[in-house]
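SEQUENCE, STRUCTURE TOKENS:
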Amino acid sequence: MKKLIVTITLEMSVPDDWELFETSEGGQVIKMPDNQYLDIAIEPLFATDPEEHWSTTDSENELDTILDMVDSEDVSYEFITH
């Protein structure tokens, strides 16, 4: 068995009112207006409470708006064998 490490670096231009928010588990997410939170993993995830269920959006426009903010993307992969 080997471990796959995937590092994704995004550079985005976002509205000035977006803020970093630390969850109770020590992770960081983005606090957006209207009491929404954004976590970008393999795809953007949304929640109305950062401690509850995260989900994708059903709105193509909402998803396109977020993805259009990506100015550049760098993805690297590394296998580590033991």
User: Anything to note?
Assistant: The longest strand covers residues 70-81. Helices lie at 60-68. The two ends are 8 Å apart (CA to CA).
